[in-house]
Structures
1.
Amino acid sequence: MQALTNRSKVVVDKKMTLMERIYVPAIVSGMMITFSHLFKKKATIQYPEQQREFSFVYRGKHILKRDEQGRENCTACGLCAVSCPAEAITIIAGERKKGEEHLYREEKYASLYEINMLRCIFCGLCEEACPKDAVYLTEELVPALYNRKDFIYGKDKLVQPLGTSAHPKTYKPYKK
Amino acid sequence: MEIPVEFLIEKTIIIIVVFTVSLVTAMYSTYAERKVSALLQDRIGPNRAGPFGLMQPLADGIKFIFKEEIIPSSSNKGLFILGPSIAMLTACMTGAVIPWGDYLEINGEQVLLQVTDINIGVLYIFAVVSIGVYGVMIGGWASNNKFSLMGAIRASSQMISYEIAMGLAIIALIMTTGTLSIREIVEQQTTDFWNIIYQPLGFFIFMVCSFAECNRTPFDLPECEAELVGGYHTEYSSMKLGLYLFAEYINMFISSAVMSAFYFGGYDIPYIETLGLSPNLVTILGSAFFFSKILAFIFLFMWVRWTLPRFRYDQLMNLGWKIMIPLAIINIILTGACILIF
């Protein structure tokens, strides 16, 4: 069989020579290797202060988008909830009243939109299912909390804040 | 017999200083252990508690004290408490005979930087270290747990078998120095070469055996996590566990001190007398030099720990009985021959 790399070594069950049986040279060379690591660049990332750069396709906390005029995109069609394999999304639809045209883009909107972040597996299927460009997964992380019920994110935590202008097609986190 | 008050005060101060220094060094050895292991593994290590994480040992100590104390109901309570106490006591006792420095002149009085200079210092250290085995054995047995018992059996058999080779290595040293007082051994090295020149093989055997005596990797079988959970301290919690772990670090400090006193000249700085400094300054510099040697040995202990894997139990025994002891005997014969010839 052709070897894939030139790094493979054939295992030989030969008797060890005297130098090998003394062990000390091998131990010293091993200690030299570990000593050289004292001065190497450290791999640690100091987490809360420093953050690792995310991949462009990273899927983190969800966001409910607004359009250019600041109206919510979501029409509470429920496709995201249906597509969700973990059944993490709950939606209750509401009807847009007169004078709320600046808040919701279409006549129907989600009066309740909850995602259970403990159920969510961050697969991104809700994002794929959404016909209205409303739900996206950002690069933000869901923080650790003390209570289970705090992990149920409502519209207060999910909707894009007013006045922010993130491009609806991008995964990038919206700038505050 | 009447004991002068000045003598008592002087010795009390020295005892307190030695005790504090060995405890603080052991405390910061835990910090150093974590830092060295981190650096050798391309990590940073503790850096949150205080600047550079320097308060970490304090935080660990507070955590140990406030943890829940569990004494298993099936254990032998008296012995269960006695185990860590013996381990800690013996670890602290060995520091008494080690010469931490030369004379210091205060108000025309000569103060010896050593708790007591007994003429059988080497034997004293061996005797006290041997009692240390009881701490481990009693703790392991009193836990009434098979893992603890296995750990204790391993620890005691390992310590006993390596003590033989260690003792034989010391015999060769004593043949060349002709004294059992540690201060005299160090004094001889201030005028002559360091003993490492005369006893390289003896030093090597002594070093390997002290690794085994301190239960450090590659000989840390008594607390081998992979097969024995925690070894002899499986059932221990809170500060009792802390005392066991702490005793290990004090032992490491003391054996580093013994190694540098026996083989590396103790507080001797070569050719310091040619500089013509005042005797007090020379003494202080000597003590600092002794301390830096100790720290270097502690670093060696950690360096080896984070480089080598653990021995298998049969390999450990093979090494102890079939290699170390014959080597030590050969060393004695060679030393004897050299003494006869020269």
2.
Amino acid sequence: MTLLDLDHVVVRYGQAVAVDGVSLSVGEGERVALIGPNGAGKTSLLNAVCGVVRPASGRVRIEGRDLTGATPAAVVRRGVSQVPEGRHVFATLPVEANLLLGAYGRVFSLEIVSSTLRYVRSRREVRERLDRVYELLPKLHELRARPAAHTSGGEQQMVAIGRALMADPRLLAIDELSLGLAPLLVQQLAEFLLRLNDEQGVAILLVDQSAALAFSLCERAYVLETGRVVLEGPSGDLARRTEVRSAYLGGPSGAPS
Amino acid sequence: MTTFFQLIVVGISTGSVFAIVGMSLVLVYRATGIVNFAQGVFAVLAGLLTYSLGKHLPLPLAAVLATLVTAFVATLVALVAVGIRGRTTHLASLIITVGIAIFAEAVLLAAFGEVPRSYAAVSDRAWDIGGVLVLPQYAVLAVVALVAAIGLTLFLRHTIVGQALVASADSPRAAELIGLNLRSVALIAFAVAGALTAIGGVLLAPAMPVAYSSGLSITINGFAAAVFGGLASIRLALLGGYALGVVEQLVVGYIDPQYNLIIALVVMLVLIGWRSRGELAV
């Protein structure tokens, strides 16, 4: 069964159509990229998946269950977590609190006493997950007591990824992994994501302005333009196509590297 | 010299109320990014409710009931201020709370009348310390403010619920994405802050009668205390409250009683000007 299945999803802001009938799927443990120019509707599509905006029409299914227009909390509980563009760490809180909140958000509700008790009861599980995140991203363990605002851009990206992992997702939706980060750091994060995918079976939906990164990291890709899917297929095939190379890989000619 | 110390003692006790309201404002601001201009109304509501209920019930029970009712009213205010989906912009929310404060005055006037109300203090004894009169009510106010400051600091820094509140103001977008419901967060923050301010109001009334119209000056004094720490620090709001109370009493005692609210406004404006200049310099 596919993990995430979008069926003709339309997202509108007033009169403006941001996503115009996109169908897309991510299988269990698969790595899928979504590329396209600014304003193509990539972030809007992720927001529709994560319950931040309600699609005007179309269906969002997670493991066959219809979650169109569900709350972000419900989507997180179903195993889809987002790493937002610009990282959005909780700046005044220590790194470790940032991570723990990733686990608390999953059980949080207005019944604050019962949801907090649920969180505390699962303390051992949360602790194990925290240790696993520290094991995967040892840098975060070093920084655990530091306010997130006092960490570098790359470290904040790790915090944002770690926080998403604390909800124990089966699909990690990442909006702009490489934005504003040094190439070496991006490569380390990419290797980390590959390992995460390989060892833990976490599926990845990557939105990135760097098509080269997206193609090298993901098995399959969708090209989005003005709210529509214009191309899709295995990354290798897409990377060889002239129109993709000229638009996204910085050159019309030459052999694919 | 006795007058001086007497003014300090009274200043710390009234300042404790400013501190309590100031810390409530900080809590709401840190959780929601909203400055709640109706915060002082909660103190008035709790004081007047305690007075009315106290005519039929034992005073402690009346005080507890008044605090609970006020906390509930605070959650209703939160619903109006942040909207059903919790997505009203901070500026719009702030203006809504100003409207609620004005509206609340009319409601309080209709419900409780215009006479300032007071009731029995925690004890009718008084301690005479070298000529300085210290009422137990003063001591209780100062201790409650201190305990509230320690409690709130621990709550925000070291409990997951407190951290969830702080996180929601740090980044509403990320808070939503990890599953926190912004509206629930606002309700929780307003309820806790409302209960705290209510306790301040309940304890204030025996020392200084409260009327339907006292809310605005309580809010302004609380805000001046909170601005002392840039609306972000519980500890500085506590110190700001004490300092403001003492300064106001010294002005009242040595210069002119009419100036006390003006002092709060001047302190607030100077602090805002000073802080914003500092931020621009960064």
